[in-house]
Amino acid sequence: MLNRIYALFVARNLEFFRDRSALAWSILLPILIIFVFAFAFTDDNPEKFKVALVKTAGLEGATARFRQTRFIRFIEYDEAETNLHKVERHQIDLLFDPNSRRYWINQTSPNGYIVEKLLVAAFADSGESLQQNLVEGDEIRYIDWVIPGVIGMNIMWGALFGIGYVIVRYRKFGVLKRLRATPVTAMEFLSAQILSRLWLLVLVNTVIFIAMDYFVDFRMLGSYINLFLVFTLGCINMICCGLVVAARISSEEVANGILNLFSWPMMFLSGVWFSLEGAHPLMQKFALLLPLTHITDAAREIMIDGAGILQVSDHLLVLGVSSVILLVVGARIFQWE
Amino acid sequence: MPVVLQVANLVKSFGSLTAVNDVSFEIRQGSCFGLLGPNGAGKTTTIEMMEGIKTPDSGTIRYQGKPLGERFRNEAGIMFQTTALQEHIKVREIMLQFSRFYPDSASIDELASQFALHDFLHQDTRKLSGGQKQRLLLAMAQINKPKILFLDEPTTGLDPQSRRNLWKEVQKIKEEGATVLLTTHYMEEAYELCDEIAIMDHGRIIAHDAPDALLAAHFDDVVVQLHAADIPRDIGEREFHATYRNDSAHIVTGDVNKTIEHLLQFDIPLDRLRIRARDLEDLFLELTGKELRA
User: Fold this and answer.
1) In which domain, by residue range, is B63 found?
2) Whole-model pTM?
């Protein structure tokens, strides 16, 4: 059995590495995306400052005046304490609680310094005193934030199309039929495809990770082993999704449509490019159904916050359980023809 | 000779179409069994059920007295009518891959010599000519040293030279003791290679025996063949019950002398006259009403 899996594994790897254009594209595309997003679209937002306000019954007086300041994007939070880390990482320039009149800024943030002046000016004639709180932390650039998502997205494309499309093409052109006429079992064939794609995805995305780190020196606070675990589990999950799609279809067009139906919502609703914070609660709940959300969030927590394995265990659990379910479904409904 | 493969009451339908309708036959060890039929007769569906690729709706297939199982998969060599191979893989690599599927496989170098693959052993399989690809597929079907070999129209699309070369290979395989099941469009091929043939039409077997026995059972006459231009169609059809195919007129007769005298009465030129025995092509036409390669 192992001999047969090994034979199919080798053949699939050879196919992948010899298809030079596809290989180059799978490595270059995510790097290009990073460059475009990191450098071309970094400074086109007219709202230069971000201020978070803790929710209060009604804004009045100096707080209302401050709230009317133009070119500041105001975000509302339920409470201050759980969002302080955003000030630490410069994701928010200032966090203000109108109820207690306490505010938090990062001393090293130039934007925080300016917004603080505006806040103090708004309260200057009010007779109300403000209480300054300082936090510390390095700035999180957009590129630091977006890289986990881009790698997750690349895993998604590589797995869904690398497994789904390849198996459908094998079926359409009769490769599966020829394999079925040998002692190879469906489980052996699927195992070889999963292992080959898993190893190739891990390899390609490791190359991308190293290349991007070299070029943009992104933030990585957590453990590389934990990050490897998250991405590997993400690869397995996406491969299993691809298996389910490819289990019976023999038309490349239909497979293409279904794979796009899976992948495009994930592209935009999994928080790869933009934070879902502030989005409609239903959309946020829907995002939790998408595996890419869990891959991206877990990777971000490890890379940006330095989270440990226990802190991302909820994401790993979702990815692990859904992988098992998808694998069982994919293997059960798989048909050679 | 003992029976190797036994097919009984095989039925397979696709929607309202019954592609194979109650087909039964047996294949004896070391023989070459030919399955003939016009397009859509059900022969590929039959052979694919025997290969374990398609599941019959009803009926049984037994190999060495047992249902198709692991032993069959290890001992059967299969060459489909059309086969795509994985892309970007070289001939030697694909042979190596397939050899790893079996517990006991033939030497790749020996197969390469036997099927003259050495010139393109390191070539991408996508770059092979039709004849080269058929040779490779036949070699791949031999990689597990099969005891039974399925060949589904192995020479379709090949030039006459390549076709004859492939016949030689099949003859060699037969001589080595393997059992062969062959479907073909070519009567000459069936006559050359098969010990037994079954003719299928509309999903049923309509004739089954050794080629010579079938001819002897159906024909005791010969064909007088003329160029169509030499015998006007109205005279040919009225006086001689001739049938016209392509450029020739065929007159079936049990008395050649009498037919020639009759032709001379109508001043039909005999310069291009040929007399031939009835062949499988005629038998096929008579039984199915269709030309084999139509």
Assistant:
1) 3-86+145-216
2) 0.75
B76–A178 C-beta distance less than 8 A: no
Longest dimension (CA), chain B: 72
Domains of chain A (ranges; CATH) run: 2-40+141-333 (no CATH), 49-135 (3.40.190)
pLDDT tens per residue, range B88-131: 889 999 999 999 999 989 999 999 988 888 889 999 988 888 88
Any CB–CB contact under 8 A between A170 and chain B? yes
ipTM of the complex: 0.78
Do residue A4 and residue B100 have CB atoms under 8 angstroms apart? Answer: yes
Within 10 angstroms of residue B250's Cβ, the number of other Cβ atoms is: 20
What angle separates helix A142-159 from helix A224-246, to the nearest 10 degrees? 40
Low-confidence ranges of chain A (pLDDT < 70): 34-47, 59, 139, 277-279
- The DSSP secondary-structure symbol of A40 reads I
CB B203 within 8 A of CB B39: no
For A15, the closest of B73, B88, B96 (CB atoms) is B88
Please name the residue that has the structure tokens 């986990």. A148
* C-alpha to C-alpha distance for A43 and A38, rounded to whole angstroms: 10
Spell A106-144 as b/e; 16+ CB within 10 A means b.
Answer: beebebbeebbeebeebbeeeeeebeeeebebeebbebb
- Report the length, in residues, of chain B: 294
A23 to chain B, closest Cα gap in Å: 13
